[in-house]
Structure formats: structure tokens, C-alpha cells
Amino acid sequence: MSETGRAGRAGRYLQQPTGYRAFIPEPLPPEPPINLAGELQHWLSQADRALGRLDGSIQTLPHPDLFVAMYVRKEAVLSSQIEGTQSSLQDLLAAEASIFAPDRPKDVDEVVNYVRAMKYGLHRLEDLPVSVRLIREIHAELMQGVRGQHLTPGEPRTSQNWIGPGGCTLAEATFVPPPPHEVARLLGDLELFLHDEAPLPLLIKIGLAHAQFETIHPFLDGNGRVGRLLITFLLCEKEVLLKPVLYLSHYFKQHRQEYYDCLQAVRDEGDWERWLLFFLRGLYDVSQQATETARQILLLRERHRELITDKLGRAAGNGHRLLEQLYTTPILSVTEVQDLIGTTYPAANNLMRQFAKYGLVREMTGQRRHRRFVYQDYISLFHDGTTSEDSSG
Fold this sequence. Notes:
Layout (H helix, E strand, L loop, with lengths): L2 H4 L4 E5 L5 E5 L13 H21 L4 H19 L6 H8 L11 H17 L7 H12 L36 H16 L6 H15 L6 H15 L11 H6 L1 H14 L2 H40 L4 H13 L2 E3 H8 L3 H13 L4 E2 L8 E3 L1 H5 L13
Antiparallel strand pairs: 1-2, 3-5, 4-5
Catalytic activity: L-threonyl-[protein] + ATP = 3-O-(5'-adenylyl)-L-threonyl-[protein] + diphosphate; L-tyrosyl-[protein] + ATP = O-(5'-adenylyl)-L-tyrosyl-[protein] + diphosphate
Protein name: Protein adenylyltransferase
Subunit structure: Homodimer.
């Protein structure tokens, strides 16, 4: 398609009464239709197959739900870091375990909210399809009690926002989304597209929907995080994945500038194909990594089960129960272990001492009382790419 032919394919910039130009997107799907030939078709096939392998690998895990929590946390940390938070996976786990370290980043509550919003949304999908209503509910969960909470959580914006370097003015913005009076209509159009039964490969549809949501930018804050959650919800709603184990934010964070450039190329040049190629490569890349993580989890669990059987003698039964719990809650206190196995405090303390002796856990607080023990080998499987970077949006 020629550059001239692309013009206006994704939408157009319109002058507003106060002088600035805002972008008004066209409804999906694009016209002319997406060209699925060549490289795009190749990566669509690759991404489909990689997601299928990932879903299968998760089903082979014993008690898959035990492991989902860490995938959700990983996505929460990375997605929040894209927006400028400093909190790491370890910070999130410490916050969940009520460890109030003096050097803990103040923004960890935003990551905690992301975890809660994802869990809330996945639960709501049992009764409510991906829709404007669900998006608004998720946004309300995400922004509750954190920076941006004064910016009408759950409510589409009633003022103009813009995207650009920190501190830039509307006139200096890299991109100006639609004016507020257009937001409700555009979200309605997006919902109609999501529910449209017209034949379109599902991964293409999800890629289009994410880009369109980011272009509408319907809230005053939290749009990036909600847009990334939208990908997960659509994959789970359509049962491409039975569990939310795809942290696509890892790929977006690694290739942040390309991510922004591809979205802007859609708006400026109508180049949907460039964006979709980037998106499908990301799905493939992250699916491969998550499948390998699932394999490493299985190997770790088997190795540690054998160690418990060999070393703990009569306590091995309780040891196995504790090990399974550590996959859901990788930081535990002795009191929590006591409640888990229904024994005395000295017996629970002895079990944790045995776990520490054989390197299964390590004490992380350095205290005599209220000690916490961490299952570091498991956490380390998820630690790649969780250092923070400066945000540009």
C-alpha cells in the first residue's frame, strides 16, 4: 500500500476550537483490510503455536493455580515499571508479606493494585465479557488509593490529556488523543468491534484492540496499564490461555521506544501492519520465555521434593505441604507455617529451620521475632527484567 493510500486509514488529526490538533481514530477493523500475507502471516502462525505450547506447558504443572500468582505478580511489576514505578518483584512480595522495610519504594501500592485489578478482572470475566463496563471497573481497582486516585478512577476523562516527555505542554505533545466529548463514542465502537463475529484472526483482533485503546486514551491516568491488562483478559476470555501466564509487558519494556514508535506509525501513517508485526513477535518471544519458566518450575519442584523426602524423615509429609504453599506464598513466617500444617509453634519453627538448613528457604528479616523466610530459588525464576527505568509517558 502506498503512503498516500495509508493516509487516514487509522484516523485523522482535527483542529480543536482552542487551537490544538487531536487525533480521531476510525472504527475497527481498518480499511483497507489488514494485509495478512508474507511476514505477518508467518509471525501470526509462530505466535499461535507458541501460545499453544505455553498453554499446554502450564497444564502439565501440578496444581497450575499455585503458580499463576507469580506470573501475575511479574506482569504487575513490569507493567507498572513502564509507567515509572521503582518497585521490584521482591518489593511486591515483601509488601504482601507485610514487611515494612524503611527503604521500600513508596509506589509499591500501585503494583499491589495491579495484582488486585488483574485478579478482579479475571473473576469478573466469569459473568461479564470484556466491555467498556469491565474496563471502567478495572480502572477503578487499579487507581484506588494511589497517585492518580484524584483523577476520577473508573470514569472516562472529561478534559484533554496528551502524551509526551515529562513536563511538556499540550502544544509540545508527541501525541494528543481524541477530545473528551469523543471518548464515550469511541469506546462504544471498540466494544462493538470486540463483540463482532466477523472473521479475523484472534491475535490480530487483540493487537488491533490494544492499539486502539491506547490511541483513545480514555482515562486521565492508568491507560497503559489498563491497555496491557486488556490483552491478558482477551486471551483468557477467548481461552487462548486458560491461565494468565503471559507477561507481555516484559517485551514492551525491553523494546519501549519501538513500542511507542509502532503505535505512532499507526496514527501518522496508517501502518497497522508494522504494529501487528511487532505485537505478534512479542507474543511469540514472551510465550517462549514463559514456557521455559514453566519447565524450570517443574525441575525445581521435583528437585526440592526429592530433597525433602531424603532429608526430612517423618517430617517429609508436612515438608511437602509447606513446599506447595511456597509456590503461592514465597515469603512466610513461622506462625503462618504453624497455621498451614496445624501443629505447634516449636514444630513449625523446627520445620523452617530444616528448610533453611538444606537451602530451601533463607531468613530475610535478620530479626529474632516476626521472622520471614523466602523461597528465593523460585522467585529467581521470575527475576529477569525487573529493574526499573525512567518513564517517558
